[in-house]
Amino acid sequence: MGTFIVIEGIDGAGKSTQARLLAKWFEERGYDVVLTKEPTDTAFGKLIRKLVLTGGREGIIDGARISHEAEALLFAADRAEHVAKLIKPSIEAGKVVISDRYFYSSLAYQWARGLDLEWLIDLNRFAVRPDLVILLDLPVKESMKRINGRSIKTEFDKIAELQKKVRENYLKLAERFPEMRIVNALASVEDIHNDIVALVEHELFKK
Ligand SMILES: Nc1ncnc2c1ncn2[C@@H]1O[C@H](COP(=O)(O)OP(=O)(O)O)[C@@H](O)[C@H]1O
Ligand SMILES: Cc1cn([C@H]2C[C@H](O)[C@@H](COP(=O)(O)OP(=O)(O)O)O2)c(=O)[nH]c1=O
């Protein structure tokens, strides 16, 4: 059996940067690595980008934004395909799977949208549990600085407010899910990478 590692955190926390570095670290040690992300690049992911992640007309059906419940179901559908077609087969083939976001994103974000946490957990029960989840934690102000210049999808303050709630949710989830480990993402890229490697070595190779 392979290994399944997930990187989580608010937008701009450094997930994709660290996922890439961790993938390289495993590759240099001879592992067969699958680096992947959610939302995926499949038709489901494209539908999410069209219906959920745009502030424009595309996210509107019959004059109203799509509901938060429909959002949660779209993310779950995308994830179901991701698990069935890529994650499960890769783990079974003995590979190291590294995913930039997973169902913890649905819990943190859709919960922040006001949906019921227990419903979200039930909805995502099909999703195989990772061996390790790295939660990159940093203040929203810092993440905002990092993504400044990226296309802002809605009004800035509203995003900051949502991200604050999402950050708090992640920290609460880390108390509930023992596979989640908090890493201080305020450090340099290199220091964070070293912290992640130390966790991987400690958590996955201790036996
Ligand atoms: N530790 C860090 N310190 C400063 N800037 C960083 C750090 N890690 C990543 N960045 C930069 O911040 C931005 C967001 O990083 P990224 O890895 O894309 O985050 P995410 O995938 O979580 O949205 C990028 O421009 C990246 O180069
Ligand atoms: C996977 C997932 C992401 N999201 C949110 C987090 C991000 O703000 C947004 C898009 O993720 P992001 O990582 O920014 O992907 P991309 O850069 O490809 O658009 O979707 C959820 O709300 N629920 C989920 O289940």
UniProtKB/TrEMBL annotation:
Belongs to the thymidylate kinase family. GO terms for cellular component: cytoplasm. GO terms for biological process: dTDP biosynthetic process; dTTP biosynthetic process; dUDP biosynthetic process. This is Probable thymidylate kinase. Pfam families: Thymidylate_kin. SUPFAM superfamilies: P-loop containing nucleoside triphosphate hydrolases. Keywords: ATP-binding, Kinase, Nucleotide biosynthesis, Nucleotide-binding, Transferase. It comes from Thermococcus barossii. It catalyses: dTMP + ATP = dTDP + ADP.
